[in-house]
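(Structure overview)
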Amino acid sequence: MSALLRKSTLRLVLLFLASIYLFILAIELMKDGALALVPTAGMLIAPDDLTSSLGIGWLSAYVMMSGSPVAASALTFFDAQLIGRLSTFTMITGSRLGASFIVLLIGFVYLLRRRGGLENLEMGLMSLVVTGSTHLLALAPGLLALNYSVLPSVTLNSESSLLSATDAFVSPIISMFASLLPQWALFLLGLLIIVCSFALFDCCIPKVSLKESRFGQVSRLVYRPAIMFLLGAVITMLSMSVSVSLSILVPLSERGFVRQENVIPYIMGANITTFIDTLLAALLLENADAFAIVLIEILSVAIVSGIILLFCYRFYERTVVGFVGWIIGNPRHLSLSIAPIFIVPILLVIF
């Protein structure tokens, strides 16, 4: 049995190392390929069009079924001077709004498989409402900080041993692809590889078998907002995927382990540490401004979430739970609420 355990652990470690390597390789490919996209994309994307970049990040996350590759793309566009600081910020925000849709999609899957009621959609809708409200509220302080250059002082040492080591491992592969493909294709290849890297990383996360008897011993913790906030932040930081950490809520809710109001602080915590991989992407780009933009994104969301938790949590909780209850209480309400999820980002891009 111990031999099987060691073999399983070794497999997970190798998958983890492979996913990290692919992530680094993808960022470098996207960085090189983005330079070739500047002349063409410059005619399609205005450098300082905040609403368009918000909508593009939002819709792109739907297409990619993940917000992290879209956030990484925003940073590579910024590094290539295709978009400005404000547009980078709003595109990353849009990627997070689009990523929350995945939890709702998983709720739909449970609804179809189990033929249950609309209650299976509660966690997905909760994720959408909490993520949407906190990130949209965080737009104002974040944009103000960027507009008035209230950027954290960040210095990235391009000669660090970490960056030098990673460059030595990925440079031969990049050179090979550069000799075989046109430069613009490197960005698309990098985008494909980064999606694969996140999928591979998800495979590294052990599948936890939930047992009600064991869960009951810690069930009282879910009634403490601070504990749930920290739990959401830690799980997302370890998994480097907000989609994974939030998707856990769907089966937990379906089995009755957690209730709507208990997961609000969990989602808030997850929405802060979900930027860890984006920070890593900025570090790999060796762009101090990009790194600072992501820091402001984190601080803005953290400040908004902190204010809600400290000063108006019960009001916020009643509002969110009431709104979600109104949606799932009537199929017509659900239709009226789902339609804007697709219409709004399209309108942002068009207008």
Observations:
- The radius of gyration is 21 Å.
